[in-house]
Every structure is written in structure tokens, then in C-alpha cells.
Amino acid sequence: MLISTLTAFACSNFYYQQTLKPENDTKNTKVAQHIATYIERHPMVDVDEYLTNIANTGYQLYFIAPGEQKGTFYGATFRKQNLEMSMIQEVQSGKIYHGILQFPQETFVTGFFANELMNTIGVPVQIDGENYALFLRPNIKMLFNEMHILLGWLTALTVIFSILFVLLNTVFLVRPIQQLTQAVNDVASGNFSITFTHDSKDEIGQLSKRFSHMVTQLGQLDEMRKEFISNISHDIQSPLSNIQGYVSLLEDEKLSTEERKQYVAIIKNESERLSHLSKQLLMLASLDKEDYFIQKERFSLTDQLKQLIRQYQWKVSKQNMMVSLSCPPLFINGDPTLLYSVWENLFTNAIKYNEPNGTIDIIVKETETTIIVTFTDTGIGLSKAEQQRIFDRFYRVDETRTSQIEGTGLGLSIVQKIIDIHQGTIDVRNASNRGTSFIISLPK
Ligand code: ADP
Fold first, then answer.
1. What is the value of pTM for the model shown?
2. Does the beta carbon of 342 lie inside 6 Å of ligand 1?
3. pLDDT digits over 61-88, tens only?
4. How many CA atoms within 13 Å lie on the side-chain side of 154?
């Protein structure tokens, strides 16, 4: 408000100096000339009485006879009587004095209010062949009528009420911001259970709603992070303690060769499990990076799937399973290494969670825009609730059912991540008789 007041004052000052001051000068020159002409044309009039009357209508006057050092003042007194004698003499010699126009320009003072003899209009008046001088300026105090007082009050009250409303508004505005700041501090110190509600529809309300949403998500992420770390610790810890246990058993010299072989096999198995887990963790970590660089190229999907089946032929035969592949000669655009690990994960799951003598069908179809790959097995199947969770990291369905089966619970999270990177989708359904179908759609 202070800045706008100062700016408005500077602008109006400029306007006064440029436009109003010359107009004011012209107007008052005319009034002074009228008075002088009237006195000159009516020699019988009592000048003293006439000028008193004029002064009473709202003017300040100074009338001075030739040769005199001091004249007579009419109307309200001048604050400064600072007119030089030479000026007075010039007016008496017939010149018009434009004191209002020539009044010095000062930054914060409009000459309009300067109650000085210098700030007047001077005109010559001839009485009986003698040259008098009459100086005139409007009496500003008298110009301020009721209308001006009303306007003054209006301005003052507007300013006062504006300040009050701004203060009031600030209190309402600052309170939720203070609460928000407190909430931000709480979150920064790790407390995600804050309840911050500011139900207004304005920007602050919007901000607090978004903030609450963000805090809920951060809380969930934090939970996931903690769960993730505890899962990793557990999954690393258990093979390590197995290895340690069997290594100390191996130190016993009385062990038979048979037992020794069995313990070494277990240690080998556990270290392989550890290696597999760390590989999967590394892969997830690198896929998690926002700027994961995929090396897309066009390659034969048919050949890749055939290679996959060949690689696991021994496992399939061992469990007496049947594998069928229905795939037209098809090329796909994608990262071959990443997509291979997708098929590998789905295929090994279909083997792991299948029944002995079961079947695995791999069907590839193509539409105008997508390639759809379906892996169907005749295995233990998944309930609706389990289907919702199998893509979560470390999730394994009911350990009692799958405890005999090797796994980390990371494979499908990796699959989903890779499919996401390829802008595809993955869906899981119950197969028509029994078992599970994983359906992957990839853009061509
Ligand atoms: P894992 O290393 O345990 O196989 P995944 O992430 O690949 O981890 O799978 C997560 C869980 O989903 C598995 O532990 C298993 O319980 C379930 N699952 C995955 N594929 C199948 C399937 N074809 N049939 C039944 N259950 C499955």
C-alpha cells in the first residue's frame, strides 16, 4: 500500500506539473484580469470594500499602491510573504506575474497547496492614472468543501479497512501454511503418519490435499523399503547360515565320503541360490534406474522361444512334461537379452509350479499393433488374491505349498519391470481346466 501510495502521488504530481498547473495559472489570470478590469471601469467603486468581498468568496489578495513598500492583504493571511519588490514593480509597470506557473517544482510538493505570496497571479490595475498591482490566489482551505471531506474520509476508510482485511486474510492464510511447514518437518524426520487436513477449495487446500497424498505414498514406499530390506536380509541370511553350518560339519574328520559329498552338494546349492539372488537383485536395481538404457533391435521371436525350449529340454524331459510352441515366423522390436529373461522366468515358473506329467503351451499371436505371448501350464494354479500379489517383490505364494520349490519371489517383479520398459502389459489368469496363464502384450 505504501508503494502504491507513493507511486500514485508521484504520478498525480507529474500530472499537476504538466497539465493542472498551467490550467490553474490561466484560470486565475482570467479571474485577476476580470477584477482589475472591473476596478478600472468603475472608478466610483470602493476598492477596499470590493476586494474584501472578493476575498470572502474564496481568494487571498494583496493590493499595493505604486511607490509603497507595503500593500494591503485581503482574505486569509499568506504563510510566506516572499514576493520581491522588483516583481511588484514589474507588475505595476504593466506586466502580468505568473507566480503559479513559475512556482518551483519539487518532488513531493505540488505548488497547489503552497500558501505563499510568490505563488500568486499578479496583474496591473490603473486607478486615476496610477499603476497599482493586484496579486491573487485561490484560498485552498475554502475550496475544500463537504464533497472533498467526504472523498477524504472515503479514501481514509478504504485504506484502513483494506489494511484490516489484509491482516485478517494473512492470519487465515498463514495458519495452514504453518501447519503445512510443521507437517513437512514431521515428514523430514521420518514420521509418515501425519494427518493434515485443510478442506478449503483454494490453492492452499489443493496443496494440502496433494501433500497428504504424497505423504501416504511416501509412507507406503517407506514400508516397502523396510519390508524389502528385511526380506533381503532373511534371504541372504538363511543360505549363509546353512553354508556356515555345513562347513563346520565338514571339519569333522570322522565323516564318511558319502556324507561329505552330500554336505558339499548342499553348500554348492546354497551358494548357487545366493548367486542367483544377488543377480536378480542387481538386475532389479539396474531396471529401477529411471534412465535404464535398453538396447532395442529387431530379432526373431520364434527363434528366441525355440532356443529357450532347447535350453530347458533336459528339465522338461526329467519331469516328463510336454511343451508345445505355436508361433508364426515373427520378428519383434525390443531388447533381446531382457526379453529372453522374461520368457525364461515365465517358462521356469511354468516348469517349477507344474504337476509331474503336466503340459506347457506357448502361443504367440499378432494383431495389427501388438504381439501377444501366452504361457499356459497345468500346474497348481493361483487364487484371485494370489494373482494380485505375485508381482510384488519377494512375494511367494503360501510357503507350505511351494517350500520345496526353489525361488526368491523376485522373478515376476523383474518380468513386470521389463514389460513396463517395453511399454507392454502382463496379465495373469486361471487356465481353462487347471493351471495358470500369463499373457504378455508387447507393442510391435
Ligand atoms: P519365484 O522365484 O518364487 O518363482 P516369482 O516372482 O517368479 O518368484 O513368482 C512369485 C510367486 O508366484 C511364486 O513363488 C509362485 O508362488 C507364484 N507363481 C509364479 N508362477 C506361477 C505359476 N506358473 N503357477 C503357479 N504359481 C506361480
1. 0.58
2. no
3. 999 999 898 999 999 999 998 889 999 9
4. 6
